[in-house]
Design goal:
With about 325 residues, the chain is α+β, with helices and mostly antiparallel strands. Helices cover about 60% and strands about 15% of the residues. A hairpin with a 2-residue loop joins strand 1 and strand 2. The protein starts with a helix and ends in a 17-residue tail after the last helix.
Length: about 325
């Protein structure tokens, strides 16, 4: 028996394993240290992918290549070749998923954790479907027939589930456009509440009363939506009326009093205060101010503080608030 083939195969195995080991040491030491010194995060991602995916496959490739060189039945090299193609396809799919996750984490900002999961799930389905077709094609299956069958079935399913597909597409539109996030207080049409969760088909809103309202994603995207969570300042407009018996000097002092009150309250900024109307039973002033903050409870606390301060200052200045009155003149016949 000629042992030279076994010796040659063994040497190929040993040299191949040594080469892969040296490459692995180089990646784990020199390249890793170099990547730590750079500002870019992409070299770290590439090195991590090489460590997790490429190096294990190289070890497997060296072993398989050494086995193929041995005098073995012809069907074994063919099986090993197909096995390598299958494993290579799986490794390529895993590398693609790692790269896409890195892109979502480092390149695309403003997407929530739930958004990341939704996008990764969609990409994972597409990549594994393509990988499966690639492996089946290399195993000898007629992939074109499978694709044609899926195409006909896909058209039928799409026609039967247009509403469902519309909701799914709008789900990803919400993820990318980010009109709201979980925890935001919104008003959609006549529905008001806090976003509780988002799904492929629908979004759940917890109303102020406490009930759970479920709206389809298509309905959300086609309806005017108010997001109060992203409101940096809350604008407040109100009117107050004083009696017609109020003197000219007292009327002139009202804007000054209002300005003094607003200046003394933190997180409140006066925009304007004007004498705006001669009403039926009152002289009306319109006041506009801003509250720094988006929380509704905080806004109501500040409004209460403003109103109480106005009441106190008007009492000190002997300015009377007006209320609807009717004067009746009786004439003797």
């Amino acid at each position: 028996m000629d042992y030279s083939i076994f010796i040659q195969s063994g040497m190929t195995l040993v040299l191949g394993l040594i080469a892969v080991k040296v490459f692995s040491i180089l990646v784990n030491t020199k390249l890793t240290e170099w990547a730590k010194q750079t500002e870019s995060q992409w070299d770290d991602v590439v090195i991590l992918i090489i460590q997790k995916r490429v190096i294990p496959f190289l070890y497997l490739f060296v072993v398989a290549n050494s086995v193929i060189a041995l005098p073995i039945p012809s069907y074994i090299p063919s099986a090993i070749h197909k096995l390598l193609i299958g494993i290579g396809g799986i490794i390529a799919a895993l590398m693609s998923l790692d790269l896409i996750k890195a892109i979502l984490e480092h390149k695309i900002s403003g997407i929530s954790e739930q958004g990341h999961k939704g996008i990764v799930t969609l990409v994972r389905v597409v990549i594994w479907a393509l990988t499966s077709l690639f492996i089946l094609d290399n195993l000898g299956f007629k992939v074109t027939s499978i694709i044609a069958g899926l195409g006909i079935g896909g058209v039928a399913v799409a026609l039967a589930s247009q509403t469902l597909l519309s909701d799914i597409f709008n789900y990803f539109a919400i993820l990318f456009d980010q009109p709201f996030e979980v925890g935001d207080h919104v008003i959609v049409g006549d529905t008001s509440g806090t976003i509780e969760s988002m799904g492929l088909k629908s979004t759940k809103i917890r109303s102020l009363v406490g009930e759970q309202i479920i709206l389809s994603n298509t309905q959300l995207m086609n309806t005017k939506l108010h997001n109060f969570k992203r409101m940096d300042n809350r604008r407040v407009v109100f009117q107050l009326g004083v009696e017609y018996s109020t003197t000219h000097e007292q009327l002139q002092s009202i804007p000054t009093i209002i300005s003094k009150i607003m200046t003394g309250i933190p997180d409140v900024k006066l925009d304007r205060c004007h004498f705006c109307e001669f009403a039926g039973s009152s002289l009306n002033f319109e006041i506009v101010y801003y509250v720094t903050g988006r929380d509704y409870q905080f806004h109501m606390d500040k409004q209460q503080q403003v109103f109480l301060a106005i009441f106190k200052e008007f009492e000190l200045a002997k300015i009377n608030f007006a209320f609807p009155t009717t004067t009746v003149h009786l004439a003797k016949s």
